[in-house]
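Q: Okay, next protein. This is Multicopper oxidase protein from Rhizobium favelukesii. I've checked the sequence twice, so it should be correct. Can you predict the 3D structure?
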Amino acid sequence: MSRRGFLQASSSFLLAAGLPSSLLRAAGSNEYRIIAAPARARLAGRDRPETDVWAYDGTVPGPPVRLRQGEPARLVVENRLAQDTTVHWHGIRLPNAMDGVPGLTQPPIRSGDSFVYEFTPPDAGTFWYHPHANSLEQLGRGLAGAVIVEERDPVAVDRDLLWLLADWRLKDTGEIASGFGNRMEAAMSGRVGNAVTLNGQASETERVRTGERVRLRLINGSLARIMALRFEGHEPVVIAIDGQPCDPHEEAGRILLGPAMRVDVVLDMQGEPGRRYEVVDDFYGGLSYRLTQLAYDPKPPIRDRPLDAPLGLPRNPLPEPDLGTAERHDLTLQGGMMGGGLMAGMGGMMGGEMMKGMMGMGGGPAWAINGMSMTGDGHAGMEPALTFQRGRSVVLILRNQTAWWHPMHLHGHSMRVLSRNGAPVPHRQWQDTVLMAPKDVVEAAFVADNPGDWMLHCHVMDHQMTGMMTVLRVT
């Protein structure tokens, strides 16, 4: 066996040894049955009360779904909630009928019913699943889980770890606070919580060993919280963004994760045995907090120097857009509060009832794309903002005219991010969820090769629900 083959075989064994049984069960099968139902979870810590949640298979997050690239998958979702639901397989390029948008791509799954999702994942990588019906509350009460599509030729690491991060708005009693859909919040940053969990728990430490190489899959499953993670004493190397391999590179200081984004990093654990190193989220000025600590085992290092193996992942079969012949379309993000009643890009100063309506306080939209608002989760008869002939290359120029951040998610496709504010984006980055800062202008290209009506929306769920959503049609 070659050295590379030995490293891969060894890493596969170590990976399997550290994975929960829910992942291992899928090793011989691409078939799952997942039940959405009420449950209880201890989110805030061992000494805090349990929380009533909505969960997949009784756990928060739901069981990781592990699939194999290029092999058919069958996922049966049963709804035991007291309301309709669906499941969106976020980031996976699948047939439109399997996309999970109620009314637009499938009927909602009624209480007591089930729906069979069948697709063949073309791309390996880190994805996730969550509802697309009453999504603000259903995601905010716990319905989320990871999807890992295994590479045929995986990167050589000692362990493969998953951190599904989420925040919650909890009362002192442990209950999830009501108030989903607060109209004032919806016109600003959305529902940001007061507690953050790592794989469904408040994390004190994550145990590591000096000398090991870890692949860490980061998923931000929050409703609105943006995260910027700093790894004290470590230099994470980014190897994939939103499930798509990129040129391996170190980020300057911190890993930025908008809601719904995923970033895979490789960490060479070169800390001192027995020492702890903080992982801090400091995105919001003055509100930084410790997410967890990397707690080193006191045992001697497992190797003297970092593992000598390539970090690059095999590319997925994404069609390369032809920039010379691509259609170019502007999509301008508008709305939201800027202070003093000013609505960004939507008519300037407003007073009285007009302002209340535009903010969504009277049930109207707070946001728009190119002057048009689509509210809710999706429904039948949604007219497309743009229509593309199948196989055409497209460049979207996304212009954020608002005072707020927006992670813009395109269903059914992945986009090559070309430039941000006129500067080329390095490292060959493909994304399905592009985080846009206030006033950003981002150019992103893709081949419209997947027929159907596809959602494009902000993944700050309050923003989606109050208007920042549209449809792109591929015929």
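A: Here is a summary of the prediction. The two ends are 48 Å apart (CA to CA). The domain at 162-296 is CATH 2.60.40.420 (Immunoglobulin-like).
Q: Noted. On to the next one.
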